[in-house]
Design a protein that fits this description.
By secondary structure, this protein is mainly alpha-helical. The protein is about 70% helix and about 5% strand.
């Protein structure tokens, strides 16, 4: 049996795949956080709760409403995104000119409320959701068996991240978004509805979290605490990549997922803390993050 550093190649490749899969979730969630912070200057601590909401919505749609996984993947991000728009219109729009702390406290409280409601309704034991029939099974790559669904998660996540990056960095809409963060009055003078653009941007960031929740539902047990378990790591990813940096969020999320996977191979005891060790090192060397702009 072929080995790498004394570890069977199947086990090594399997951990890398799990690390890449987790990195994809980190990338999508941190991308949504970066978009929201870059456009609204809101540190959205409710992001993990809305990730959990997307997972529960997918589970409910497939088990109680009889929808297919693919229908849930299309519908759930839109519905949760609309819920995010409602949150922005009713609560967050009043905080844009205030200190970041107010937005953080409000979204933190909102996260606790959402998690409490789901725990009251569904309990804390968690629910299981099966993957779609077309994505079940595994493919023999010779050196490992690749679960088809995990491969789908990685591929879909990377494509979504690239599309989002292209929209923001390479299109006219993206240029309006970036200009709106710097000088909203100037952008409004050209007839562009900046408040509407901000609201839709927040909704899209929330929809990204819900999309990640749907992808995660067949892999991670759907429970009210699944968002709280991942959001701390995602915030570390955002800090390492640079607050508001789109490409930084994507690359850092994927990279740290792989680092975490490798750590589980060589030193499992440190796998839960390696991300925060990296964050501390990066902040000591470059306080603005790897891809952030120094002020």
């Amino acid at each position: 049996m072929t080995e790498i550093f004394g570890i069977p190649i199947q086990a090594f490749a399997g951990q890398l795949l799990i690390g890449l899969q987790n990195g994809c979730f980190y990338a999508i969630l941190s991308l949504g956080l970066a978009i929201i912070f870059g456009m609204l200057n809101i540190i959205n601590f409710a992001h993990g709760a809305l990730f959990m909401t997307g997972a529960f919505a997918a589970w409910y749609c497939t088990t109680s409403l009889g929808l297919s996984y693919w229908a849930a993947l299309a519908v759930v991000p839109v519905v949760v995104g609309l819920f995010g728009i409602l949150i922005e219109r009713l609560l967050l729009q009043w905080l844009y000119k205030l200190d970041h702390l107010y937005g953080l406290l409000l979204t933190f409280g909102l996260a606790l409320v959402i998690e409490g409601l789901f725990q009251h309704k569904f309990g804390s034991s968690g629910q299981s959701m099966s993957s779609p029939e077309a994505l079940q099974g595994a493919v023999n790559l010779g050196f490992m068996f690749l679960p088809i669904y995990r491969g789908w998660v990685v591929g879909a996540s990377i494509v979504l991240c690239i599309i989002t990056w292209f929209m923001i960095e390479r299109t006219r809409l993206g240029s309006y978004l970036r200009a709106g963060t710097e000088n909203p009055r100037l952008v409004q003078s050209f007839g562009i509805n900046v408040p509407l653009m901000i609201t839709l941007t927040y909704g899209y960031g929330i929809a990204l979290a819900a999309f990640a929740g749907v992808l995660a539902a067949p892999i991670i047990q759907v429970s009210p605490h699944m968002g709280a378990n991942i959001i701390i790591v995602v915030f570390a990813v955002v800090v390492i990549g640079g607050m508001g940096s789109i490409m930084g969020s994507i690359l850092t999320g994927l990279g740290l997922g792989l680092v975490e996977g490798l750590t589980k191979v060589f030193y499992p005891e440190a796998s839960s803390t390696i991300v925060f060790v990296v964050m501390a090192i990066v902040l000591l060397i470059r306080p603005a993050g790897l891809f952030g702009k120094e002020k």
